[in-house]
Amino acid sequence: MILNLLNFSAMEPLINKIKSYVTLTSEDEIIIRTLFQKKELKKGEHLLKAGNVCRHVIFIETGLVRYYVNNDGVEETTYFNKENEFVCDNMSFLTQIPSYINIQALEDSTIWMISYDNIQRFYKEVTTGDRFGRLAIEQVFVSAASQNVSLYTDPPEVRYHKFLRNYPDVAQRIPQYYIASYVGIKPQSLSRIRKRISGKH
């Protein structure tokens, strides 16, 4: 009971995030607070490893994570999520088949987790649950699709500019070799791009 009371008082960032998508009644909020569980992650800890099924949608209250795939022994960073964002491998979560993606905490992080079964309850029991699910999934899909298109169509310097635009408040929190991997270049090439950019200011 003590844990439940703590959860009720500590979930405001999550509740406010959901409210940014849909309207919630007081009854809706009570239901939502019973469906999520809080967890603390250490830097380097994985939320998901390739080969496992993604069984939770996660909201980051504080912290930072990266998505990466292992390509012939080389880690390729594909995405980042920070505080006040949702984390999930949607393909694995929606189909409940093993993921090929790894999701790893880059900082000590505080997260809220909702299981596959509980998200079904969310859709059914929360007044605007279905609408929230549709809007949240659409946003994730558009963001991921945009990143994939950019990787194949934009030169590295443009991709780096887009990274700075998309993650202006976290660029200093991410190791440069992860940023280089995300942009799709070697760290040495990223250093040259950063020097050219700094020389223009």
Description:
This is Crp/Fnr family transcriptional regulator. It comes from Olivibacter ginsenosidimutans. InterPro entries: cNMP-bd_dom (IPR000595), cNMP-bd_dom_sf (IPR018490), RmlC-like_jellyroll (IPR014710). By secondary structure, this protein is an alpha+beta fold. The chain has one domain: Jelly Rolls. The strands form two sheets. The protein has a four-stranded antiparallel beta sheet. Strands 2-7-4-5 form a four-stranded antiparallel beta sheet. A hairpin with a 2-residue loop joins β4 and β5. α3 packs antiparallel against α5 and α5 packs across α6. The model has no long low-confidence stretch (mean pLDDT 88).
How many DSSP E strands?
A: 8
| Mean pLDDT, all residues | 88
CATH class descriptor: Mainly Beta
CATH topology: Jelly Rolls
Order of adjacent strands in the largest pleated sheet? 1-8-3-6
User: In terms of structural class, how would the helical and strand content be classed?
Assistant: alpha+beta
Helix content, binned percent:
40-55%
Distance between the termini: 56 Å
The total count of helices amounts to 9
Strand content: 15-25%
Rg calc: 18 Å
Q: How many structural domains in the coordinates?
A: 1
Note poorly predicted spans.
Answer: none
Biggest sheet, open or closed, and with what strands and sense?
4 strands, antiparallel
Order of helices and strands: HHHEEEEEEHEEHHHHH
CATH architecture: Sandwich
